[in-house]
Amino acid sequence: MLSAVKRLLIGRPLKSNELGDQKLNKLKALAILSSDALSSVAYGPEQILLVLITISAVAFWYSLPIAVGVLFLLTALILSYRQIIYAYPHGGGAYVVSKENLGRNPGLIAGGSLLVDYILTVAVSVSAGTDAITSAFPGLHPYTVPIAVVLVIFITILNLRGITESASILAYPVYLFVLALFIMLVVGLFHITSGDVPSNLHPHFGTPVAGISLFLLLRAFASGCSALTGVEAISNAIPNFKDPAPKNAAKTLMAMGSLLAVLFTGIVFLAYYYGITPKTEETVVSQIAEATFGRNIFYYFIQGTTALILILAANTGYSAFPLLAFNLAKDKFIPRMFTMRGDRLGYSNGIITLGATSILLIIIFNGQTEQLIPLYAVGVFIPFTLSQTGMLVKWVREKPKGWMGKLITNLIGALISFTVMMIFFITKFGQVWAVLIFLPLIVLMFHSIKKHYDAVGEQLSLKSCEPILPIEGNIIIVPVAGMTHVVENSINYAKSLTADQVIAVYVAFEREDEKSFEEKWKKWQPDVRLVTLHSYYRSVIQPLTKFIDTVEHKASESNYRVTVLIPQFIPKKSWHNILHNQSSLLIRAYLLYKRNVVVTTVPFHLKK
Question: In the chain, helix, strand, coil percent, each to 5?
Fold first, then answer.
């Protein structure tokens, strides 16, 4: 039944040689990998206004020079990441660049920042998309969290079906959003040039503002830089592109940067000219659309596509997180399960982990993840800074042809990224201080996992000088619950494995049952030792596992191996296993981490 449901949700398994069919062309890649960056135009301009409104609406004209500063930073980042794509065509982005050029710990800081950032990408994007839905339909406000959770589950399942299939479906909403915003910008500019929008709605450019300060302007600039989240995703996901992958990735990056620049500038300008003021119950884009079209079909088209792009922005995280997790797992800094491809050739463990942690965040913050946006943004600018600095080191060390031009590009990117990162820490410390706690903890966790894998690898290596002690004998423990063909089959198999000890263990709840079973056993299997354990609290697992621990401890002193043979009955219907093998599953789960105990089952199949 579970297998049938799985096939229905994610489709048939794909062969390994079908991996080439799962690569993205430029159009699909632009939709999938740019959705996070493009969606940020729906809340980036609003973040600027939310800071400026703390002074007064007169300060809104500052949004224009701030937008120019954001565009300058965007240009520097696009050019910098274009160089990273060609320098590191196998992907990995900031993690690989930082690790190879700055050292292990800077690489882990970049990798850890991005892992957390992609989780925040999903939580923030889906929550923002839900906000857009509830702005258009206020009656849905009480159901914000359930709507967001369902949307995350939907996107997770879609990505488990494979990147090509998800791209084919999700490309349409992304391009519809771009089309919708272009229509809104063109119509809005037409209204302005035709004189339909009164000029007294907005403060004149250069109007003096009482109480304005450099600190506040820097804070507004840092808030606007939240529109740049997702710019790095393409450099992380180069392996997802069709060949020639680096060339296609670079073209997609340039197209994304151009679209982002036009849409961000247009929304900031319309918000300023219309005199839009941020509201709790309605987004800035919603107000611009209403001012441009009124509450008609075009307004709902804008809101619908905005909600879709905000939700689907999460898909950038689903594209980049599994690949970053793969690179970290390949280097043994996170569990190696993240290197395994699923039925549809995607890194399904990474996809599921991302979905589960994002749902947890949405529930914890009750779907109100606006306070996570500064944390989300600073989590991007840390790897931005490290990757640009790493490229500086690379050019100085290698000095390839034309390296001075590349050096200057990355130097500008590094300086601006570092400046924005410090502005975040200085102006929004109350919202981003958690980074200073969880990043060191994540790096420590990475080192701990790496240390474990190195220790295990050293013990398993054939080059190890440590002699392997010979196994002196084998003690086989067979838990029994009665005298049946299943137990007889297991006892016979145990005898075939060892000439040493075979111990049958019976757990009794009543003294009478204990004596009765011992007498019957002597007649049935006189040559097999029986140990009966009395359970005062009617538990089979607790006394049995305690007995196994005792035997293991004594056996290890003499270098004997302990094997636990669990009789197992397999009925006709597979779901009956749940009814018949509960104890078997629990015993195996308990002994999973025992070093000197081998656990196996002896199945007894029902005759047809």
Answer: 70, 5, 20
Return all residues near 10 (Cβ < 8 A) that are at least 6 apart: 157, 160, 161, 342, 343, 344
573: left (phi over 0), alpha (psi -120 to 50) or beta: beta
- Rounded-to-integer distance, Cα 317 and Cα 462, Å: 40
DSSP codes joined into one string, 97-164: HHHHHH-HHHHHHHHHHHHHHHHHHHHHHHHHHHHHHHHH-GGGGGGHHHHHHHHHHHHHHHHHT-HH
CA dist 284 → 8, 132, 144, 200, 270 (Å) = 40, 10, 19, 19, 10
Cβ proximity of 117 and 376 under 8 Å = yes
pLDDT by residue (tens digit) across 214-259?
A: 888 888 888 888 777 778 778 877 877 888 888 888 999 999 999 9
pTM: 0.71
Please, where are the H alpha helices in 194-230? 214-224
299 SS3 class: helix
Helix (H, G, I), strand (E, B) or coil at 65: helix
Rg (CA), the chain: 31
Q: Which two tokens stand for residue 61?
A: 């004209």
Amino acid type, 414: A
Encode pLDDT of 159-192 as tens digits: 887 766 666 677 788 888 889 999 999 998 988 8
With a cut of 90, say whether residue 443 has pLDDT above it: yes
